[in-house]
């Protein structure tokens, strides 16, 4: 290891009365009569010979204006420790010397030894300034051209709304898991403020948070996942000295999967009384779904779409984007290969986000009958419209042949449900209900999982399986019969397992 020559000195700004030259270190006032340094006069500095430049020029690291001798020695030792990191390797010595020289010229603090050691170990040029978190996130997203539009919009939202405002100014290699946790704490503080204002009796206070939404725990988890993905690439990058993915170590409360609850008579009665909705995901009973579909028959242009979702559990975008070209009524099948995604007001057509989502569903006889009648009606409407018909090729269209906007379908669903006097569920709740009815009817979970487009049967059971009241009662009676020593009643099988 090379020996780096340096010294610590004390100097002042006094000048010789005759020549006017600066006395510097020769000023007699710098020391007391006993030879000790005078703490009330002058300031301390250091000087260190640096490795030559790439052009072979000599250079020094020099700084004055320090208050104590200890500060000067600490700074000098810091410089030597930085140079020692090169371990005598000429090119690395030059890089570290350049780093020191640039910091002193710009009057910046010298980087910590551990930080430079990390950068030396990763093989990056120690002179390059690591990017801020904002710069890295922006470049990371721009460098992923193959992302689905919906996924890109989701990542961009997390970066714009949360990650950059809270973490953007922090240098990427200095980002800590505690800072990520502090971001979520700040978001939760804002949540509490919004809730307090919305519950205020003062109209002005409520108006101050109009349009602001509480950030859910699931959104926090998705935001952390976005940061984790970006940092994973930073860890792999040879140009960024990041060795730990701090997002993986940032703690968040667990976010259990939202399991659906059925609108039982008791829950409906409470809802009628005070509007209480007992869960985030609610499902109708088969009887309630039947009531909805009967009421939806009045809306000719929408009933077949809702019927298909209620029976086969298609996602909203899959149903809206289903073309006739992929629908074979003779074979009672439909290929799910496209979906319509809506971001804000913009819509676009894409493929399902997973390989399992690209599937073929089997249509029951009732659904085939509904779709045949709908196709006949649609053809008659097309003939009447003539040249004004928009030939979208879609199964479900508006009166002019154009496709539905997904948000409009959801709005109409809520409107029809209210008109039918049914308790509140989302359009996606029909998908939950379709899965639950299929499982309650004794359909093998593998078949249900494939029809829904899930990659695993566990996800299907854990998320979409609900226990309808009559099925649950049958299970209870069958269990009680066993305890009494009686024979379980016929037809008590096919119970939906509770997970």
From TrEMBL:
Xref: Pfam families: Phage_int_SAM_3, Phage_integrase
InterPro entries, A to Z: CB, DNA_brk_join_enz, Integrase-like_cat_sf, Integrase_catalytic, Integrase_recombinase_N, Integrase_SAM-like_N, Tyrosine_recombinase_XerCD
Superkingdom in the source lineage: Bacteria
Domain Core-binding (CB) intervals: 131-235
All copies of domain Tyr recombinase, residue ranges: 279-477
Protein biosynthesis is among the record's keywords: no
Keywords, comma-separated and alphabetical: DNA integration, DNA recombination, DNA-binding
PANTHER family referenced in this protein's UniProt entry, alphabetically: INTA PROTEIN, PHAGE INTEGRASE-RELATED
Protein name as catalogued: Tyrosine-type recombinase/integrase
Source organism: Nocardiopsis codii
């Amino acid at each position: 290891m090379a020996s780096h020559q340096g010294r610590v000195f004390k100097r002042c700004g006094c000048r010789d009365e005759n020549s006017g030259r600066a006395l510097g270190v020769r000023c007699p006032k710098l020391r007391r009569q006993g030879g000790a340094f005078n703490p009330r006069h002058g300031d301390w500095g250091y000087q260190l010979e640096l490795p030559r430049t790439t052009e072979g020029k000599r250079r020094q690291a020099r700084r004055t204006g320090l208050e104590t001798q200890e500060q000067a020695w600490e700074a000098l030792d810091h410089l030597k420790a930085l140079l020692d990191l090169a371990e005598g390797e000429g090119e690395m010595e030059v890089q570290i010397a350049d780093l020191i020289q640039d910091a002193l010229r710009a009057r910046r603090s010298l980087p910590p030894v551990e930080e430079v050691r990390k950068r030396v170990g990763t093989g990056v040029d120690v002179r390059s300034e690591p990017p801020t978190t904002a710069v890295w996130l922006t470049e990371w997203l721009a460098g992923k051209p193959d992302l689905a539009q919906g996924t890109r919009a989701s990542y961009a939202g997390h970066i714009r709304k949360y990650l950059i405002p809270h973490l953007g100014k922090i240098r990427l290699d200095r980002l800590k898991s505690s800072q990520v946790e502090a971001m979520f704490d700040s978001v939760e503080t804002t949540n509490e403020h919004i809730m307090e204002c919305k519950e205020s009796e003062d109209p002005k206070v409520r108006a101050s948070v109009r349009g602001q939404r509480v950030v859910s725990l699931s959104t926090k988890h998705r935001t952390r996942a976005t940061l984790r993905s970006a940092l994973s690439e930073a860890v792999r990058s040879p140009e960024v000295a990041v060795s730990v993915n701090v997002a993986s170590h940032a703690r968040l409360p667990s976010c259990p999967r939202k399991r659906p609850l059925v609108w039982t008579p008791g829950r409906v009665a409470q809802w009628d009384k005070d509007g209480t909705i007992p869960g985030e995901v609610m499902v109708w009973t088969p009887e309630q779904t039947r009531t909805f579909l009967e009421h939806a028959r009045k809306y000719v242009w929408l009933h077949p779409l809702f019927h298909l979702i209620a029976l086969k559990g298609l996602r909203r975008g899959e149903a809206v984007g289903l073309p006739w070209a992929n629908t074979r009524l003779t074979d009672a099948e439909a290929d799910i290969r496209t979906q319509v995604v809506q971001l804000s007001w913009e819509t676009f057509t894409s493929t399902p986000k997973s390989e399992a989502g690209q599937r073929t569903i089997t249509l029951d006889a009732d659904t085939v009958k509904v779709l045949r009648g709908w196709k006949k009606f649609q053809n008659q409407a097309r003939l009447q419209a003539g040249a004004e018909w928009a030939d979208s090729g879609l199964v479900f269209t508006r009166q002019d042949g154009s496709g539905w906007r997904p948000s409009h379908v959801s709005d109409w669903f809520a409107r029809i449900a209210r008109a039918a006097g049914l308790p509140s569920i989302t359009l996606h709740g029909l998908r939950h209900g379709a899965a639950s009815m299929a499982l309650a009817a004794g359909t093998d979970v593998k078949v249900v999982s494939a029809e829904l487009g899930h990659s695993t049967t566990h996800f299907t059971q854990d998320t979409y399986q609900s226990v309808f009241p009559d099925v649950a009662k049958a299970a209870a009676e069958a269990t009680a019969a066993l305890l009494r020593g009686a024979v379980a009643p016929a037809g008590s099988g096919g119970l939906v397992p509770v997970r």
